[in-house]
Specification:
6 strands; binds farnesyl diphosphate
């Protein structure tokens, strides 16, 4: 019997972008810049500069891995205890990042927000933050949140101070107040990655990490690659997330 050949229909046009495999909020504690530099006989500032380059590569890779929100810990409020020259250097680097990357973020559909205190920033950085946030406000491909002068405990404390004015008291409405305090929103973290070998949260997203999965890596932040990010996302995909319920297999 003669079989008619199967004719595969050609798609008329390739989709612009593959649909996201998942829709994740990934938060990263980008630790290890200083050790990366000193182990090479370089000043710590060279480590932060290399760290900023890593951030660029990771931000570019994130949407393709199904990440819709990426929060990077760029400067902790606790970092004010470091030598003033180092903190000033990091703030300068962040300013430089905003100036060079805003147009790229606009082109790539990245919405940029800063979470953390703004009152202790140099006023030029504060203005650059406001400009970058306004210019990228319509980005829908990735929400990039940079935590600068950020302390989760302080943010929760400020939200609690405001909460007494709220009439409908619930965990959700507290989250809304926290979101206002942070300005850059407050959404649950799915996956928290920390580079640099330490295994602690260091006052980062304490409220939002309630049900997060943690991946700790010994690699220092400047050595972290898009492939490492992909592996962490894959590892996350293998974890069973029940949020306190029973796993499906047992619950029946
Ligand atoms: C941690 O390394 C990094 C920081 C305290 C801040 C600098 C972060 C970046 C430059 C990455 C994000 C940058 C941009 C532009 C988004 P560490 O100094 O604590 O390292 P150590 O533990 O080895 O001393």
């Amino acid at each position: 019997m003669h079989m008619a050949p199967i004719v595969l229909q050609q798609p008329t046009a390739l989709p612009q972008e593959l649909p996201p495999r998942r829709s994740l909020h990934v938060a990263i504690i980008s630790d290890g810049n200083g050790r990366w530099a000193t182990s090479r006989g370089l000043p710590r500032s060279a480590g932060h500069r290399a760290g900023a380059q890593t951030a660029r590569r990771i931000i570019a890779a994130a949407p393709g891995l199904g990440i819709h929100t990426l929060t990077l810990f760029a400067l902790s409020s606790a970092n004010w205890k470091r030598p003033p020259a180092e903190v000033a250097g990091i703030l300068r680097l962040l300013h430089e990042y905003l100036l060079t990357e805003t147009s790229n973020c606009m082109a790539e559909g990245v919405r940029l927000s800063i979470i953390g205190r703004r009152d202790r920033m140099p006023s030029t950085l504060r203005d650059a933050v406001a400009d970058a946030e306004a210019a990228t406000a319509n980005g829908t491909r990735l929400h990039l949140r940079l935590a600068i002068d950020y302390s989760a405990r302080e943010a929760i404390f400020h939200a609690a101070c405001r909460f007494y004015k709220v009439t409908k008291l619930s965990s959700d409405t507290f989250g809304d107040v926290l979101s206002e305090v942070l300005r850059g929103g407050s959404t649950d973290v799915d996956l928290l990655i920390r580079t640099g070998g330490e295994q602690r949260l260091s006052d980062f997203l304490l409220w939002e990490c309630a049900f997060a999965e943690f991946v700790f890596l010994t690699k220092r932040w400047p050595d972290f690659t898009a492939a490492d990010l992909e592996s962490a996302v894959q590892e996350y995909g293998h974890r069973e997330r029940t949020r306190g319920a029973l796993p499906d297999a047992i619950a029946g």
